[in-house]
Amino acid sequence: MASRDKPDLPASPPAPWFTDDDLHLFNEGTHACLYDRLGAHLVGGPTPGVRFGVWAPSAERVSVVGDFNDWQPRVHPMSPVGSSGIWEAFIPGLGAGEVYKYHVESREAGYRVDKTDPFGFRQEVPPRTGSIVHALDYDWSDDAWMAGRAERNSHHAPISIYEVHLGSWRHVPGESDRSLTYRELAPLLADHCLRHGFTHVELLPVMEHPLYKSWGYQTVGYFAPTSRYGDAQDFMFFVDTLHQAGVGVILDWVPSHFPSDEHGLGFFDGTHLFEHADPRQGFHPDWKSLIFNYGRNEVRSFLTSSAMFWLDKFHADGIRVDAVASMLYLDYSRKEGEWIPNPHGGRENLEAIDFLRRLNSEVYRLHPDVQMYAEESTAWPGVSRPTFTGGLGFGFKWDMGWMHDTLAYLGHEPVHRKYHHNQITFRAIYQFSENYVLPLSHDEVVHGKGSLLDRMPGDAWQKFANLRLLLANQWSQPGKKLLFMGGEFAQWDEWDHEKSLDWHLTEAPRHAGIGRMVTQLNRLYREEPALHELDESPEGFEWIDGADAEQSVLAILRKGEGGCDSGSVVLVVANYTPVPREGYRVGVPMGGEWLEILNTDAKEFGGSGVGNLGRVEAVEPGEHGRDHALELTLPPLSLVMLKPASGGHAGS
Description:
CATH architecture of the domain at 161-369 and 390-397: Alpha-Beta Barrel
Structural class: alpha/beta
Radius of gyration: 27 Å
Number of strands: 30
Largest sheet: 8 strands, parallel, barrel
Strand order of the largest sheet: 9-12-15-18-19-20-21-22
Shape: elongated
CATH class of the domain at 161-369 and 390-397: Alpha Beta
Oligomer: single chain
Strand content: 15-25%
């Protein structure tokens, strides 16, 4: 229970709180754990209370206000900490649960405002905007996961990501159709991932945001999980539960922009403190939001500390950085004359580039067993290459090109696909230029685009067959996998953040078939080294035939470490037309028997059951420059995978 003591005068802090090193690193832009200093912190001992700290260098006065002083400014004034721009106060008698804000009186005449704590660990449930004094203690039970997660997050691991918006994944019927809480979600989501074989979940931003329909991408509380589903400990329980089930947690994070709500970061102390003052640099025309000033050292410390906070305090296994392209380019979504060139006259945002490189270096220095993911939609070179080679230093980059080209190709009626064959083969030109994640994310099922299933051409049977082909293409290509919720059971409707997924569809045969196929894809991805070990290496991929545009057929070979000599190979053949093809010859690198380990046209997946009866014997003469060939039956609108049975021998 929060104390309601109202001391007549503010007490002095019991001991120095900000060290010289803290202030130096903060003002230098290299402080990575400001959350241990700024914000509201409970103090025990003989004089219990709460210590407050906030950065407001252009303020004339700053006070802590709340129910404990009837929201009256100047009752609990804060004191400046040297020339750092930080203000601090200690209020004895306060405890956890107190609602508070900072009342800022700027040197700018007449500007007075109550601000939410930028470092607050908990906020009131929106639309209320107060910060809440809250501790971060929690007894974790994920030691086994943490000890082994380096291997689970490695570039050689089978990383299959299930992207989730927590508020609309599943609702509680009969309770005003409310969203589940963190604690209610945890066991259900863990079980769902285990059942379907996903290795990680990626959460749309859980950081506090005032506008629910922003899906979390208009962040205000960079150090607070949204209170819509519980408090910090509830979210820790969520992560802990998934870790104990063997499922990693990646958090979507937004350092590219923030909303202009008065209670938030914008114009914080009567100046453009966190954002650029000039709208040509500080205002985002697409999202009507504010852009961080990456050249300001204290802002860099703020953002670095935010990313580190979720790794340190919540055991996150990765950070997905949203809208990286908007950070890299000064002219992003701007017309001529609406942006300011860098000192060299170019359009590259040198300050943002430097920030991203420093951020990634710091994250991997302190947490070498996590991964940083970039949502970057341009051809910027070296996004996932080390900073010492001139790269940005991310571990992975989303392959937006694969997503656009593949969806465009499958959007054509099959009879026309032969005229667009390059859309399905073009990726091979660049597929190892970065460490890629292949995303079918939330962005592909909103704003009138329809669901993945509904976007497929043809009648209902063909739509399901094309969707199976799309997903099998994703799992067979080099790169890690990401699928937005609902895709694993072929949601018919476009995603609506106000509604639960249509879970009743999982009982329908064709939808259940998609679920079984996704489970099988994840099992093969996990169990077949050829499908994951060399996801980022040219040695893991080989064309068999990419030129059969007339029949819209592709054949590739995926290889693991040791390649053909070790027998770690998987043949992938896709037929992008509804015409079954009998006796289709495909060259293979070894003789003997090959086992059909996947057929997307299998009846258990909702298909017609055309296939190769589980096995094919390699014959001579060969095909495609190889000594042996398989004479395959290619089912309609399908993809098949085969691997050599034991005893296969390498050939040419």
